[in-house]
UniProtKB/TrEMBL annotation:
Cofactors named for this entry: pyridoxal 5'-phosphate
Coiled-coil stretches noted in the UniProt entry, renumbered to this chain: none
Modification type N6-(pyridoxal phosphate)lysine: residues: 298
Pfam families listed in its UniProt record: Pyridoxal_deC (PF00282)
One term of GO molecular function: carboxy-lyase activity
The name this protein goes by in its record: Aspartate aminotransferase family protein
Organism of origin: Rouxiella badensis
Record has Lyase as a keyword: yes
Record's keyword terms, sorted: Aminotransferase, Decarboxylase, Lyase, Pyridoxal phosphate, Transferase
Keyword Cell inner membrane on entry: no
Amino acid sequence: MHPLLQHDLEHLDEILEQACDTALTYLRSLPERPVSAPAESQRIAPGDDKLSEQGVGAQRALAQFWHDHAEGLSASAGPRYFAFVTGGGTPAALAADWLVSAIDQNTQLSFDSVASALEVATLSQLKQLLGLPESLCGSFVSGATMANFVSMAIARQWLGLQRGVDVAQQGLHALGPLRVISAAAHSSSVKALSMLGIGRDALVNVATLPESEAIDPAALEQLLIQDPGLPTLVLASAGTVNTVAFDDLPALLALRERFGFWLHVDAAFGGVAAASPRYAALLEGWQQADSVTIDAHKWLNVPYDSAVQFTAQQHLALQVQVFQNHSAYLALPSVRPDNYLHLTPENSRRFRALPVWMALKAYGRAGIAEIVERNVQLAAILAQGLEAIPGLTLLAPVLLNVVCFALDSASASAEETAKRDRFLKLLDAAGVVRCTPTTLAGKPGIRAALVNWMTEEQDIKRALQSMVQCLKSV
Ligand SMILES: *Cc1c(COP(=O)(O)O)cnc(C)c1O
């Protein structure tokens, strides 16, 4: 064995303690750490990309990383990082995530580990948490992008079936024309259309309800009537990123009865709202979807990367048709919900279920519901505070946990966009709160998405103070 490997093997305790100390230093710094790392600390020093010939051992490598790059880290795990939709990691989820690396299971149905059975058990608990039927089949994937991709790949197989074509076997060219309809599909679903060879141009945008990002069911009906025989995939949203709009799933299901399409529900973060009885009704109908996406690294507050893809049981055979993997050294694919090698794009898979399992054991339904309800309450307080600040205005009513706002003067002009960008740059430089730019109804807006388990009212106060301060010099 290489002497440094031998040394590290003998000093494993100290190495892991050093990693733990480093992690604690970061976590304890979160309340004061700049949410956005200073630009100069985000760059790599010359020579830092040079391969080490002899190595320095784990302890020096760890120390060097922390010494050189601690300042270059954002506070994305912290309570005032409202950019994108960014969850943190609850203590139980974080601890489990460390264990995942230590125990290093390859989660397939390999008959040598409990890992795939625990994945099934975790998904059962998640379904109980969110009011989803036990019959849904789930798999852990790396993120909602991948969950959307997998769902749409199964949908593509189903679209082929409508024409007697096996796309997985014959290829996309055998499929013929099809249609994908949505109102506010997440960009990752559009990316998935490209990855699936369906093409971004296949997406038809249907009209929305007035002042909303949600599909207008009457407009959808008109589209479907125009070409009733065309194989169709409808991408529904259960929580859009700008305004947390929920499509009217019961209305979409009634249309599916008549026209027969695949209904995919992207509930990346909005789905977790179902953990609270206050908001579960927003998701009504998602139990009957053909496929569902839920992120774990957003509102479930599990470290990156983790999401769940759900498929209605009757489509599991289609999922296996798409993702089956034949090899002389592997068992033949069988249609069963724990045979993960044949259900998702990966062959080797990280034991992603464990952090979710641990979080649900540790905090239960009540704990997750509390995070959801607190975030929603704080979003309302943030919105109230923003409205009271001269110079800021809400761009949309706050439905749940995302506040979409703008500078007072916001109009669809290049100057206003530049002014918004200056404001966000000042906010980043102040380092107290991070928000992301967006466009809503053509206007340059700003989003604050609250999903972190640590966020408290004092964080909202500090965020508002920083905004007032930055407005002065915009
Ligand atoms: C975040 C998000 C995605 C993409 O998820 P990743 O986890 O970043 O891959 C897809 N859909 C919605 C609605 C989202 O909020």
